[in-house]
Amino acid sequence: MSFLTDCTRAWLTRSRKPFLFQNEYDRTLTFDTERGLGLYIHIPFCKSICNFCPYCKEIYDEKKANDYIDALLCEIRTVGGMAKGKREVTSLYFGGGTPALVADRIGEIVNTVKEYFVITEGIGLELHPDNVTVPTLKTLRAAGVTKISIGIQSFLEKYRRILGRSRADAAKLREALAAVPFETVSMDFIFALPEQTAEDLRRDIDTAIAVGANHVAIYPFIDFTFTGSKVRAMPKKEKRALLDAITRDCLARGMTRDSIWTFSTEKSARYSSMTRDNFLGFGCSATTLLRHQFKINTFSVREYCARIRAGELPTSLTLRFTERQRMIYYLFWTAYSTRVSEADFEAFFGVKLSKMYGMEMRLMKLLGFATERDGVWEMTAKGAFYYHYYENFYTLAYIDKMWGIMRQEAFPSEIRL
Ligand SMILES: C[S@@+](CC[C@H](N)C(=O)[O-])C[C@H]1O[C@@H](n2cnc3c(N)ncnc32)[C@H](O)[C@@H]1O
Ligand code: SF4
Question: Does ligand 2 lie within 6 Å of residue 54's CB atom?
C-alpha cells in the first residue's frame, strides 16, 4: 500500500524526497498575503467515545474544557496579532470532537476571532444529534454560527448498532431545526458498512431531507488501524457500486455535488472546511497550511495548555514544502471539490498547470477521469471513484500513520511520509 503512495508521490513531485515533518516551527507566521485563507478551530471533547473515530478527542470534563478554551483564546490572540490589521478570511469552522458541548463559550471565541479577522462566508460548527435542542441551537445562532453539521452516521438501527451510536430521534431533530433555522444544515452519514445497500442510504437521505437537512455528507467508512473498531471495510467492487448508486440518486433528486462526498439541495448550502488554498488552525491537532509550509499542533490537551501557558505556539511538527510538493497538496485538496481551475492554479503558483502537469492532465482525460471546458477540469463519476480509492490509500498510508504516532507522542522528533 505505501509502495503505491510512495511511487505516486515520487512521480508527481519529480523527486524521491519524502514529506518530512520535523519538530520545529516558526515563532511568527506570515499569512498577510495568502489568498483564500480559512480558519479552523478544534474542540477535542465528546460525551462518549465512538470506537471507529480517529479524531483527536477525550471525554468531556467541564473544568478541562474551560481551561482548554482559555488556552485557545490565547492562541487565537497570539496568531491573530501576527498580521498587520484585520485580515479577511473566507470562513471559520469549528470541528472536533463535539464543539456544541461548549456552545456557551462559542460566542466568546467568535468575538476573539473577530478582533483579528473579518469572516466573509459564515461560521460552521459540528454537533452530535444529542446537542440538537432549541436552547443549544439558539445559543449557537446568537454566537454567529450560520452553518451546522450533525453527525447522524445512520438513522437505521442496524448500522447504528454496528457503530455503537445512540439513536438519533428524527422527530426531535425536525422540531428543533424548524424552530431555529440555519443557512446550511448538513448531516453526516457513513457508507460502505457491512451489508449496507443503496436502498438503506436512500432511506437515510430521505429522512435527512424530511427533518430539515439541505446538505448531506456521505463518508466512506475508513478502518483506521489505531481505533478499536471491529467493523470491516467493504470490498472495492461493492463499494464502487454503492458510491455510483448514491451519486446517481442524489443527482436524480436535483441535488448538486459540491465535493466528492457532499451533496446539497440548495446552491447556497455549503459545508466544507477542507477545500481552502490556505488555512490557519487553532487548538489540539489543528493544522495550518500556508504557501510554503504545513504545521500541525500537538494532540495532547495537557501539553497544548502547557505550551500556551509558557507563551509558545503549540506546534508539534512542521513540513516545509518543495514547490512540487505544494502543488500536489494544492491539487489533491482542490480536486476534492471535483473541480480544478487552470486560472486559479496559475494565480496561486505563477506558472501554468499545463507546464507543470500537462502529461498527467492528458492522461486523466484519456482514462476518462476528467473533462476540460474553458480551462476548468471537472471530475467524472469514474474519476471520483478513483480519487476516492486513492484517498483511501493516502489516508491509511499517511494520515493513519501520522495520527497513530501523534496520539502517543505530544512532540515526536520527526515523521517521514
Ligand atoms: C467530529 S465527528 C461529527 C460531530 C460529532 N462528534 C458526532 O460524532 O456526531 C465528524 C464525522 O466524521 C465521520 N467519521 C468519523 N470516523 C469515521 C471513520 N472511521 N470513517 C469514516 N467517517 C468517519 C463521521 O461521519 C462523523 O460525523
Ligand atoms: S464520532 Fe463524534 S462523538 Fe464519536 S468520538 Fe468521534 S468526534 Fe466524538
Answer: no
